[in-house]
């Protein structure tokens, strides 16, 4: 809470002392200070064992930016609107299924 309450003062002080430490092109204060920010998560199910994470896991979550870097590896991407369809979709060669309908921490 300290940062949130004093962010204007802190950014002003850093700008006066070491302005090169600030991300001047950033508008959100966390990014301006070079901090990592939470990203939306995408839940992925590899429908082909070729895409299994570490050769073992066929169901995993990725931050949106990581998913964007790897999604083009699959020839087919199935977008599921509900969890039951996502979990029961049949195996397909060179394919993945995605679902982002809820927080990954929940089992809803």
Summarize the structure in words.
The chain is an alpha+beta fold. The chain contains four helices and four strands. Strands 2-1-4-3 form a four-stranded mixed β-sheet. It is elongated. The two termini are 31 Å apart. 8% of the residues are buried.
Order of strands across the biggest sheet?
A: 2-1-4-3
Could you say which overall geometry the principal axes of the C-alpha atoms support? Answer: elongated
Helix tally?
4
| Rg over CA atoms | 20 Å
Structural class: alpha+beta
What is the distance, rounded to the nearest whole angstrom, between the alpha carbons of the first and last residues?
A: 31 Å
Largest sheet: 4 strands, mixed
Number of strands: 4
Beta-strand residue percentage: 15-25%
Describe what is shown at a glance.
The chain has 108 residues and is α+β, with helices and mostly antiparallel strands.
Question: How are the secondary structure elements laid out?
Answer:
Blueprint: H1 2-18, H2 29-32, E1 41-46, E2 59-63, H3 64-70, E3 76-79, H4 83-88, E4 95-99
Parallel strand pairs: 3-4
Antiparallel strand pairs: 1-2, 1-4
Features:
4-stranded mixed beta sheet; 4 helices; 31% helix; disordered C terminus; 108 residues; single chain; alpha+beta
């Amino acid at each position: 809470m300290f940062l949130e309450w004093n962010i204007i003062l802190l950014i002003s002080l850093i700008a006066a002392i070491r302005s090169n430490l600030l991300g001047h092109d950033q508008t959100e204060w966390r990014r301006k200070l070079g901090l990592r920010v939470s990203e939306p998560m995408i839940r992925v199910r590899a429908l082909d064992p070729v895409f299994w994470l570490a050769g073992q896991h066929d169901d995993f979550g990725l931050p949106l930016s990581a998913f964007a870097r790897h999604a083009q590896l699959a020839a087919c991407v199935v977008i599921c609107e509900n969890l039951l369809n996502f979990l029961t979709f049949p195996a397909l060669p060179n394919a993945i299924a995605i679902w982002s309908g809820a927080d990954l921490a929940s089992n809803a």
